[in-house]
Amino acid sequence: MRVEKPPTPFNTTEFLRAASSIGITTSVAMRLAEGLYVNGFISYPRTDNTVYPSTMNAKEIISLFLKSEFSEHAKTLLKTKLVPTKGKKETTDHPPIHPSSLVPRDQLKEDEWKIYELVVRRFFATFAGETVWKTLKVLIDINGENFKANGARLVDAGWRGYYPYNKPEDRILPVLEKGQKLHVSKIELLDKETQPPSRYGQGRLIKLMEDLGLGTKSTRHEIIGKLYSRAYVHGNPLQPTKIAMSLIDSLEKYASTITEPDMTKKLEEDMDNIAEGRTSEDSVVEESRTMLEAVFKDLSANKDQISQMLKEGVHEDKILGKCPLCNSDIIVRRSRKGGRFVGCTGYPDCTFLLPLPKTGQIIVTDKECEVHKLYHIKIINKGRRPWELGCPQCNFEQWQKTQQKKQT
Fold it and tell me: pLDDT tens digit string along 120-166?
């Protein structure tokens, strides 16, 4: 048997991680949560607390949902003693995130409902029982080589019945006995390579920032938002752009202190110490000034080298591939009137060009067109979903075909 303990109450970090896992970015999740809080539907969403206060009336809150689509869950929980889980961090500023009033699904927009439902289900799960799996481990001897197989079957849904997100699937194995002989129907030899570690998603990055002491519960999602708005990263999982790589490479080479988490972590801790009266503002300001002066000294002494590395990064971020006419680099360029287009660096000898949309942030991805060997382009407009334009030459050729059909 394998037992899964119920999750702890939502603090801001865990809430943002959970929202990211259901496809809602951290910045959007926080904006939606703040809207739900302002309307009185959930508690304050900026909190480090993972322990419900003793003054909270859990029975009263759960009873709000007796006449809702969560009614069966509410009825089941109200038959129990309602003992919640507890996280490691307990503060007195704000309670963990939990529902504070009932709102029907049809009164919220789709993403608002997803966040509200997430908070409600997490709240219920913290009062639920353990999830129980029946497990089976099998060791099979084939010509002297041992092969292992693991199976698992859900016996008691427990808290996962209330909180079904990222639920593992049953891995059913047949009933087997020790010493039983099996027939090998097929043997496959797979040739694989070691894969690189997966990139950080927003939720995982939020957790890492908390572990490293970077930012606060109120600023971590905003920091990630700035990385996107300044074109240092794109996509989710986050993928750095060439300019971001150049920035970090230059800083690590000429002002390494600023790239390490230690300095920022120390400043954040000092802010907390000031707020709690453990240190004086003057001593922190003086210490911070000393650290920052050392960083600026390094930056000033190497500004030309840093500038050159950043220029190279900006240029690399614009390169889409080789020109089909002269084999020079083709890059994202601007016309004298401010328009954007894909043009050849061999201009004026080569006049190859492709049009680009007039608005939106242009991101050159690392996905390459199999036909034209050009990197795909992504267009980002604030408040809209990213437009995967793809290969600019494929896109242009498709547009030409559409125009020809209109004319015939």
Answer: 999 999 999 999 998 888 888 888 888 888 888 888 999 999 999 98
In the set 44, 165, 232, 347, the catalytic residue is 44
Give the separation between CA 373 and CA 323, rounded to whole angstroms: 10
Do 2 and 141 sit in the same domain of this protein? yes
How far apart CA 375 and CA 368 sit, in angstroms, is 4
Total tally of structural domains belonging to the chain: 3
Q: Specify whether 162 is catalytic.
A: no
Provide the domain limits for residue 3: 1-178
> Per-residue pLDDT tens for 26-51?
999 999 999 999 999 999 999 999 99
Give the Cβ contact number of residue 172 at 10 Å: 9
Spatial separation of the C-alpha atoms in residues 118 and 116, rounded to whole Å:
5
Task: Specify the pTM.
Answer: 0.79
What whole-number distance in Å separates Cα of residue 94 and Cα of residue 384? Answer: 33
Q: Residue 4 in contact with residue 133, Cβ under 8 Å?
A: yes
Quick one: 220 and 307 in the same domain?
Answer: yes
Residue count of the chain: 408
Distance between start and end Cα atoms, the chain:
69
CA-based R_g, the chain, Å: 28
Q: DSSP letters along 93-136, please?
A: SSPPB-B-S---GGGS-HHHHHHHHHHHHHHHHTTS--EEEEEE
